[in-house]
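Problem 3 from the worked examples.
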Amino acid sequence: MVHGTLVGSLLVVLQFALIAALCAPFAGDLLSGGTPGWSWSWIPVILGLALGAWALFCNRPGNFNIRPTPRVGGQLVQSGPYRWIRHPMYSAVLLVAAGCASSGASPWAALELALLAAVLAVKATLEERWMLAEHPGYAEYRLRSWRFVPGLF
């Protein structure tokens, strides 16, 4: 699992670098002193923050891991958003990032968002492989839930 931890850590670094690249211009606009007006960019940001908060609330303390490796002694959470989505935190990150990207603050936003989605897809693939080995009920859970978007993917 040492190799997995190294790969997982690298993916986390890439994830946060891409989040910073996408959201720093958006946050900079917010922090520049002006009051931001309403735009459609706020909808995915608000939805993403709400989904992320719900996922954290439903997860058990000490069970959450930012790397795709399961925590030793961790529990398989299947309630709240986990009932339908195996990776609601990744979905939340993508929603917030999509809102930041759609604000038009960065000319590279579409590429950065696509790269972030790819990094999270790789993380999810590795995490699912390791969850299958760690949790006997994960195979059945995977059959009745969606990776990121219920009914779609």
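Problem 4, a separate protein:
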Amino acid sequence: MSTTLPARSTARSSSFLGTSIFGASSALRVHLMKAFGAIGCVVGAVLGLVILKVVGLIVVGLVGAVAGVFVGSATAASFSRRALDIVRSSVTAFEAEPAEEPRLFNLVESLSVVAGVSMPRVSVTAPEASPSGAMNVMVLVDPAGASDAEIVVTADLARGMSRIALEGVVATSMARIKSGHLEAQVEAAALTIEGPWFVTKRVRERIVHEANAAVDMFDIDVRACGYTRFPPGLAEAYEAMDAATTVTSAAPESCDSLWLASPRPTNGSRNDATAATSGSTVGQRDGERVTLAERIALLREI
């Protein structure tokens, strides 16, 4: 992010031998444990065969596999600790102060209590990164669990919506933080941005797909309405976004799934940044993206 400030809390902090090494359960961790474990097993088996003959092949091979699994897990944990900073550095925004956005801060503070999450940072996209009237919001969390979450809004979303509509958007952001899916999405975005040598393009694409396919934005909307107890407020917010524009260049395409709605210009209706899954409460098309209009229709039925 153009202005990267240190995290304010460690509410989800983890120890070196806890979450940061062995508890960082993710597709990346599983892949690296398998890959490094296999490499360690082969290298260990070869060394064991050369040094200790047949018995060494088995014993040293197993030792090599265990060492490879540990190295893979540690490598994944190290990347997870950097993932949030990698994504933040790609976003053109600045951290806002309560005096600059008092209404937004008031809603974020109150709804974070309702949702049971730590107060996230609040940032606003730079004027040059979003066209006039753009309304969208990005949500970030730390896959390693050590830093605060962050809500990044376009300036016109914060100032152009009614309080009740803005409350719905903030509630949706809290529901995303609470869902437990954003960690994998942020990690997947960081993988795409940095493209580390230890993860092939094919594996990166699979991790990105799995991270985004696991999210059901219909259910996120329903959870958000549970926080506000007023579905029409969120419907009003989506109507305002659909009538305006959700387009912004504040972040690279790899971060699209982190926005509430697609930040890319389209010829037709603007889509959610995340595809709905087959477990949704309405009859959406599995594997396809859903439009803001479809989400509004769901909210009108609640």
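Solution to problem 4. The chain is about 55% helix and 5% strand. The CA atoms of residues 284 and 294 lie 9 Å apart.
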